[in-house]
Amino acid sequence: MRVGVPTEIKDAELRVGLTPGSVNELVARGHEVLVETGAGLGIGATDLHYRQVGAVVVDTPDEVFAEAELVVKVKEPQAVERARLREGQILFTYLHLAPDPQQTKDLMASGAICIAYETVTDDDGDLPLLAPMSKVAGRMSIQAGAHCLESSRGGAGLLLGGVPGVPAGRVVVIGGGVVGQNAVEMALGLGARVTVIDRKIEVLDELAARFGSALDTAYSTAFAVQELVLDADLVIGAVLVRGARAPRLVTADMVSAMRPGSVVVDVAIDQGGCMETSRPTTHSDPTFVVDDVVHYCVANMPGAVPRTSTYALNNSTLPFTIELADKGAKRALSDDRHLRNGLNVASGEVTELAVANALGLNYVDPETAVANL
After folding, report:
1. 2-120+306-371: which CATH topology?
2. Are the beta carbons of 187 and 207 closer than 8 angstroms?
3. CA 57: distance to chain centroid?
4. Nearest CA-CA partner of 89 in 365, 348, 367, 339
5. CA angle at residue 225 from 220 to 229, to 5 degrees?
């Protein structure tokens, strides 16, 4: 199969769909890989590195999209990229469609087979292709939040870990999944006072066992969220519902009642955000202020550390990429229910129920869609 890797064009996005090592694996299996010139520079991979492992380096994204049967990316295709997709072409990348009706409409119109990293599953019901970036984003959320608490960034002028004689900052993490766990670990490592909120008792049990008395846990109710958010210096939004729009658990009224100079970091912004006052931002312009509260809502946080992120992502995505290249879409999706769970749009139909529900679109079962490919 001919596999294409375009340069990412989302703001400040320096990750790349395939590392040279991943390309080498595909070429060794008899596949042709087209890489747009400069696609890997953000991770320190030059065109020469790609050529040395057998890739064909091409000059333009038009060549990649026109010739590739399988396009492997990182972030959701931008409008100009969606216009290049064609019927029957396979797109394998993060999509986050539930809060993005225009992207969904364009993908449906393209007729492409669109598989989203974030809804591929495993035997435990987890999301193995989302987890690597969730780990990175969770850790970065504390780093970003601590920076935003500095007065030069509009924050309260507070050192998150404090110093002897001065209390540490209060961090509230809403959601105890992969993002939340990594945020908790980083915040505790900095010496902050940390509370995590979740509505699954087993998750709270696991976190309590892992972090001990250093971590406070709270069962998620509207009252508990409000009480803890209003007392926080830094709030991390780490809520995820597979494929669906994130629930908005922090209201505009709560934000308006927070202390001036407090910070919210909404890691769930890819799925629409879990704070009512959130809107997507970019690495070029990462923050805005609502009611004297600094908001950091960058929609591709791991893009700021492209080397770490790309290699971590490829470790998880490569087996599925090989499966698609070796078998083609129909057979790969038929054989692997976990990969099939990643199918969001196929031949003009929405095949992810949460996306269809969020956008009010007709839903076609993925098994039916695959049978009709």
Report:
1. Rossmann fold (3.40.50)
2. no
3. 27
4. 348
5. 145
Domains 2-120+306-371 and 131-304 in one fold: yes
Residue 110: other Cβ atoms inside 10 A? 22
Contact 233, 149 (CB under 8 A): yes
Residues 312-331 pLDDT 10s: 999 999 999 999 999 999 99
Q: Which of 83, 53, 85 minimizes the C-alpha distance to 66?
A: 85
> Under CATH, what is the fold of the domain 131-304?
Rossmann fold (3.40.50)
Catalytic residues: 96, 270
pLDDT tens-digit readout, 96-139: 999 999 999 999 999 999 999 999 999 988 999 999 999 999 99
Whether residue 246 has pLDDT greater than 90 = no
Task: Specify the range with the lowest mean pLDDT, choosing from 109-113, 242-246, 261-265, 321-325.
Answer: 242-246
Strand 263-266: give its sheet, edge to edge: 215-219, 193-198, 170-174, 234-237, 263-266, 293-296, 287-290
11 has pLDDT over 90:
no
Please answer whether residues 16 and 9 qualify as being in contact, where contact means their C-beta atoms are separated by less than 8 angstroms.
Answer: no
Distance between CA 277 and CA 262 in Å, rounded? 14
User: Using CA atoms, how far apart are residues 67 and 113, in angstroms rounded to an integer?
Assistant: 16
Residue identified by tokens 């780093």 is 143
Domain ranges, ordered by start, for the chain? 2-120+306-371, 131-304
Angle between helical axes of 131-148 and 306-327 (0-180°, round to 10):
160
Of the candidates 66, 12, 78, the one whose C-alpha atom is nearest the C-alpha of residue 36 is 66
Q: What gap in Å lies between CA 143 and CA 145, rounded to an integer?
A: 6
Measured CA distances, 238 to 247, 297, 343, 372 (Å): 11, 12, 24, 37
Closest CA to 130 of 368, 366, 338: 338
CB 296 within 8 A of CB 263: yes
Q: Nearest to residue 308, comparing CAs of 24, 66, 88, 43?
A: 43
